[in-house]
Amino acid sequence: MAAEEGFSLLVATPDADLASRIGAAAEPWQPDMVVAEGYISAFKLLTERPFAIIFADCRGAQSPVRELVARLNFRCPSADVVGIVENPPLGKSESPFAVGAAAFISPDADATAIRQLVRQLQQGRAEVAGCGWIGKSPEIRSAASVVLTVAPTEATVLLIGESGTGKELAARAIHENSPRRDKPFMALNCSALAEGTLESELFGHEKGAFTHAFAQKQGVFEAAHGGTIFLDEIGEMPLGLQAKLLRVIEERQVRRVGGTVTLNIDIRVIGATNRDLAMAAEEGSFRRDLYFRLSVIRLIMPRLLDRIWDIPVLVEQFVASQASRKPSFADDAYEQMLGYHWPGNVRELKNFVERLSVLGPAERVTARVVREFLQDDRTTVRNLPMVTGRSPEAARHDLILAALAELKRDLTEIKQAIYAGGIALRSGDVRDPVEAESEEKPTNLTHLEIETIREALVRTGGNRRQASKLLGIGERTLYRKIKEYGL
Q1: Contact assessment for residue 161 and residue 274, using Cβ atoms and an 8 Å cutoff
Q2: Does 223 reside within a domain?
Q3: Distances (CA, A) of 88 to 56, 58, 84, 105, 107
């Protein structure tokens, strides 16, 4: 990074030698560096201004390291928190970000190691900003790195992820960082249209090609000439159209419905799906050749549940974008949000913050308020009347499955509360949750998880894809759980 690329740096330590070493290591970036000798002054500084990186000397702190790191994240959500400790407070399988830290370093770390860490953090921040995204988790930074690597190429990209994880944002980031940025970006949801309509939207049609075709129409392939086409939910495309799409991608030519003229096109295709297309190809519901053509580059967009420490960053940005009230969030409110499973991912979180900004308290949001609004969400969705056209027996079966899914969500919340859990732990005779889970004798929680998975498999006749959707987890996670528990 160039020297002029400065940033704000907070070093919270009474150790003058350590502060000097950190300052020397970060000097190539010419940071705006502030040193706080104690945490009272450090937290006061965080109420006055934001920082990009916080080096926090956790030695001698009265609070547990996990709690201290969490509080720094809550007070300055966008900052990368680097904990300075003798022994990192991590379980066997935990990474620093599991407790909200960008990294843990030794108090004896030399300037070279600190400089390398600063360079890595600055690069990650720059790549996420280059994609126009929000977040600081390793998962989102890894995705941003892939996006910026493939963007200048002509490679076809398949984006994989649950609804609300930002697949279209990723596609736009690829387009905006590519040589095609000045050309059109066209997005089309393949699951929202009937087959005939979808074919017309993709390839266009000639006047009189079918009933109500009163004029010639351009398809998105024509309209996006020179640019990028984003095909969302491509796994829902009918097989007949899949063959035509493959031919268009391969030959770079398109013919309108009802037409005889072949048009040359120059486009880049980005597909997106929340399905396992590799399995769909094995089952025959998706063309194998199209799958391989689309998945030259595969990018999995992480769930919000896999990047929970991005929640305070996202909340901060969503609140800032509100035109009216801009409430602040208490530490326990953030803890409550970190413990929720967010099945709708970032989209659900944004909706939640917007409602809080309108209907919630004008100034301070607490854990109680968060619980009330989350409970309102569940009640509203569960009790909303609708005509389904299904028999009472089928409806009862659906209610059983819904209750099973909700039980799984509650289980996930409990687990997440334990793992983010280091926030609430205090010193005393408390076992590490990761170590406790590794014991041979299953805990009640593990037993509940086993029974929940078994019931989902029974209810779906052993169909693992349907079971994973019912449980609200990825198929790979379900496979791993089945193997782990010997189901």
Answers
A1: yes
A2: yes
A3: 13, 10, 9, 8, 12
What's the CATH code of the domain at 329? Answer: 1.10.8.60
Task: At 4, list the tokens.
Answer: 């002029």
**Same domain membership, residue 258 and residue 144:** yes
Q: Is the pTM of this model over 0.85?
A: no
143-147, 168-172, 228-232, 452-456, range with the lowest pLDDT: 452-456
465 lies in which domain range?
392-485
Encode pLDDT of 393-419 as tens digits: 444 555 555 556 556 655 665 555 554
Structural domain count of the chain:
4
Helices (H), 49-166: 65-75, 111-130, 138-150
- Residue 170 token pair: 């990723």
* DSSP classification of residue 2: -
What's the confidence (pLDDT) of residue 479? 75
Residues for the chain: how many in total? 487
Structure tokens at 45: 């500084």
Q: Check whether residue 150 and residue 289 sit in a common domain.
A: yes
What contacts 372, CB < 8 A, 6 or more positions away?
none
Per DSSP, what are the bridge partners of residue 189?
232
In degrees and rounded to multiples of 5, residue 459 shows phi and psi of -65, -30
Q: What is the pLDDT of residue 57?
A: 94
Task: Give me the CATH number covering residue 179.
Answer: 3.40.50.300
pLDDT at 274 exceeding the cut of 80? yes
Q: How many Å apart are CA 106 and CA 115, to the nearest integer?
A: 14
**Residues 457, 348 share a domain:** no
Domain identity same for 312 and 289: no
Domain identity same for 127 and 144: no
Task: Please state, in angstroms and rounded to a whole number, the distance separating the CA atoms of residues 330 and 366.
Answer: 5
Say how many C-beta atoms besides its own lie within 10 A of residue 248's C-beta: 20
Same domain, yes or no: 397 and 275 = no
Of 134, 183, 182, 174, nearest to 155 (Cα)? 174
